[in-house]
Amino acid sequence: VVGHDLAGDLPPLVASASTVVVLCDRAVAGYAAVLADALVSAGHRVETSVVEPGERAKSLDAVAGLWDAFAGMRLTRSDAVVAVGGGASTDSVGFAAATWLRGIRVVQVPTTLLGMVDAAIGGKTAINTAAGKNLVGAFHPPAGVLVDLSVLDSLPAALWRDGMAEVVKAGFIGDPAILDLVERNPSGAGSPHGPDTRELVERSIRVKADVVSGDLRESGPREYLNYGHTLAHAIEQVEHFRIPHGQAVSIGLVFAAALGRQCGYLDDGVADRHRQVLTQLGLPTSYPADRFPDLLDAMSIDKKTRGARRRFVVLKGLGMPTVLEDPQPSLLEAAYEEVAAG
Ligand SMILES: NC(=O)c1ccc[n+]([C@@H]2O[C@H](COP(=O)([O-])OP(=O)(O)OC[C@H]3O[C@@H](n4cnc5c(N)ncnc54)[C@H](O)[C@@H]3O)[C@@H](O)[C@H]2O)c1
What we know:
The protein is α/β, with parallel strands linked by helices. It has 14 helices and 13 strands. The chain has helices spanning 10-13, 29-41, 60-72, 87-99, 113-119, 157-174, 177-184, 186-189, 197-213, 229-238, 245-262, 268-280, 292-300, 329-337; strands spanning 2-3, 19-25, 45-51, 80-85, 105-110, 124-129, 132-139, 144-145, 147-148, 287-288, 311-315, 321-325, 340-341. The strands form five sheets. It has a five-stranded parallel sheet with strand order 3-2-4-5-8, sandwiched between helices. Strands 1-9 form a two-stranded parallel sheet. It has a two-stranded antiparallel sheet with strand order 6-7. Helix 5 (113-119) runs parallel beside helix 6, helix 6 (157-174) crosses helix 7 and helix 10 crosses helix 11. The structure holds nicotinamide-adenine-dinucleotide. Nicotinamide-adenine-dinucleotide (NAD) binds at residues 25, 27-28, 53-55, 58, 85-89, 91, 111-112, 114-115, 118-119, 122, 124, 134, 151, 154-155, 159. Nicotinamide-adenine-dinucleotide binds at residues 25, 27-28, 53-55, 58, 85-89, 91, 111-112, 114-115, 118-119, 122, 124, 134, 151, 154-155, 159.
């Protein structure tokens, strides 16, 4: 459900649950209270609690705390959990719901752009371990996703911009109308208050939902959602996760376009459009030239690789993703020259 002021749309998504637990990121506690009121008015017994903001929610300790809370509330399989927050909260609360009693209903209420168009869509939940990000998790499709655009009013501009990298990705792999909307009004697309926000969000969700509905467990086309992400994950690793994900994805998209061009798949117009659109949104499109050897190493251990091979999603044209397996390092280097700065 996508729209404005959607608290009244939540009760039908948890119909028949006697107890509903609303777990929220502290940053959106006020909004979560409005959702809780709507549930109480609809006759549910409602418990509310706050989860740690950001990645701190994605620890085993945090999830163990949620399991203990569920036990204290005597939560049964016919009850429901509502996760309110950014992708970190929806991942963590989603994982707690996936594992409690081997799975109870969860409704995701994403409150960041990235959560709305990516993390809360598609049923992947996860926490981090000492060995890396998202290593423990479960596929647990939500009973519903409530995308209330009103909650974006408080979102910092930088988080909006970072989320737009995934919106642009959705445009290139599945719905070029997204790119037209950004190009027609870049400053509007650069803020949650632009005239096309709802359409951008809805179209991006549709791209992901269409892909995932045919391949929940990532044995085929779901991999296309990793467009731009092989280099992005390598950059995040090399930067020890101090670079925002959206910025790494933005650079990764320009690299993936260059790789498509180097393979002879992509014409200059589509390849160059990547950098143009991302630059219009204020996202980065280059990375230091001397980091290529480190990135090449990091890409070979990216968890999306199968065996020791490097896999890249590239485009054969707008909206036509395909997988390139184990390209020659010389081809990768040639593509990297297009993003290399300094
Ligand atoms: N499950 C998936 O398929 C999937 C896909 C992509 C990303 N992810 C995960 O998503 C996470 C990143 O999500 P994110 O970018 O939403 O970051 P986040 O959840 O860490 O939130 C970023 C910050 O925004 C604050 N915040 C959230 N909503 C707000 C609002 N409306 N107003 C003001 N502040 C708000 C939070 O408190 C936090 O400090 C990562 O852990 C990533 O692994 C999961």
